[in-house]
Amino acid sequence: MGIDNLEKLYIEELKDLHSAERQILQALPKMVKKATHPRLKKAFEEHLEVTRTQLDRLDQIFAKLDKKGTGKKCKGMEGLLAEGDEVMKEDMPPDVLDAALISAAQRVEHYEMAGYGTVRTWAKLLGEHEAAKLLQKTLDEEGDADKTLTKLAETSINAEAEVAVQVSR
Q1: Model-level pTM greater than 0.70?
Q2: In the chain, how many domains are there?
């Protein structure tokens, strides 16, 4: 039988997030390599470590449920990361590329926040309180990453990209 109750839906969505995190682990090193702004490069490196921890948390949740987190591919994340790959292949000044990388990364963060917020709420409804706490921790980290990227964009990178555009005119 397919997904016929909230618990099954919860598990499927957790699998989707597990796949998304695995895909991000593969994508972030490429973003680190492409980023030119030192603070952006550092933010991506730090989030790579955070992502490993987030994947570990999902594994803890699956272990408690006596389920496996594998077997599903997150097509939404696959699409977002494919768009990010396209951006990284574009020929653009380094400052503009950094602004584009922030944009691509924030799309990923927002997608993750939507997913983690949903499964956290379902965990609470299903009485999975420990899982809800773990999911909230990840949700908080994704929000922090988004705020870090926004701050970088607003305080330096976007302005530097604008200067690059003006110089090229």
Answers
A1: yes
A2: 1
